[in-house]
Amino acid sequence: MNVAPDMPPRLEAHGIHVRHGPGCDRCLTGAGPEQGNRCAACGTVHAVRQVDVQAFDGEVLGIVGESGSGKSSLLRTLALEQAPSAGMYLIREDGPDDHQNRFDASDQAIRRLRNETIGLVRQHAHETLRMRLSATGNIAETMLAAGHRHVGRMRERAAGLLDDVSIARDRHLDAPATFSGGMQQRVQIARAIANNPPVLLLDEVTTGLDLSVQARVLDLIQRIQRERQMTVILVSHDLAVVRMLADRTLVMRHGQVIEHGLTDRILEDPHMPYTQELVQSLL
Ligand SMILES: Nc1ncnc2c1ncn2[C@@H]1O[C@H](COP(=O)(O)OP(=O)(O)OP(=O)(O)O)[C@@H](O)[C@H]1O
Ligand SMILES: [Mg+2]
Ligand SMILES: [Zn+2]
After folding, report:
1. What is the dihedral of CA 206, 212, 217, 221, to 10 degrees?
2. Closest to 139 measured CA to CA, from 108, 164, 104
3. Structure pTM?
4. Distance in angstroms (rounded) separating the CA atoms of residues 223 and 230
5. What is the pLDDT of residues 138-191, one digit of tens each?
């Protein structure tokens, strides 16, 4: 970790709540259902409940939890892809909007943030990449969205980014549809960092890949994160993945953060029974 301690957080979110359904008198007071994330009275799912997140420059924050615990919902909210039902969100860009709640930003401002400030890598590459466009074309498209116009320079930069993620030169003009799963994730990463965003959000980036491929993708993320001193938020249901990269970790269950702290502390001395189970499953 190489966190700049005197800088304010790169991003800071408070009281994020993501609800699917209207809610009722029973679940709208307090933090939602008493058990699980679904209200027994009205059926509303409270996917994320009163979650706070803070991440600094140069820091990797891990988010772990079982399937359905709300990790993707939280990450989509932080990526400004999905509006929460409540919450406030500050992103530091050293600009005039630094003190504004980004959840209230205009569509245009959100588009800019998503193009230039927050890179997002999804679990399934086909949710992000255009599979029939070339790898180079996928990256150029992202640069166009951020206002780049010079074709030669975009092509050069796309080649450099694909080199960075170890896609061989003779495959740059091939379509991701013809790539392996690990290669597709690497193209997604190249695309996500094309406009030099200070923040990179990763959702189950190595889930479903062979262990050896998984290790290479995680190494790549670590190298890129260090070179660029990015703020990375890494979501995984697998504590082993988080252990490899994350300085700090949040443990989620039923939409809530039940434990947080330095990853080393959580691994050595988990406080909550659920976290203890997760750690034991690593042994
Ligand atoms: N559009 C939706 N409508 C209703 N419920 C939803 C919707 N999207 C998500 N949920 C519910 O929200 C909860 C959290 O889902 P989410 O995808 O965030 O979990 P996750 O931790 O990412 O799980 P996984 O590890 O399987 O990816 C789940 O109970 C899910 O069923
Ligand atoms: Mg998920
Ligand atoms: Zn309810």
Report:
1. 110
2. 164
3. 0.94
4. 10
5. 999 999 999 999 999 999 999 999 999 999 999 999 999 999 999 999 999 999
Write the single-letter amino acid at 212.
S
Asked whether the beta carbons of 103 and 83 are under 8 A apart, the reply is: yes
Helices and strands, counts by H and E, the chain: 10, 9
Task: Pick the closest to residue 102 from 85, 116, 119, 90 (CA basis).
Answer: 90
Q: Where are the domains of the chain?
A: 118-196
Rounded Cα distance between 240 and 243, Å, is: 5
How many C-beta atoms lie closer than 10 Å to residue 7's C-beta?
11
Ligand 1: residues with CB < 6 A are 20, 37, 45, 47, 65, 67-73, 237
Ligand 3 centroid vs 256 CA: distance in angstroms? Answer: 17
Q: Are 205 and 124 in contact (CB under 8 A)?
A: no
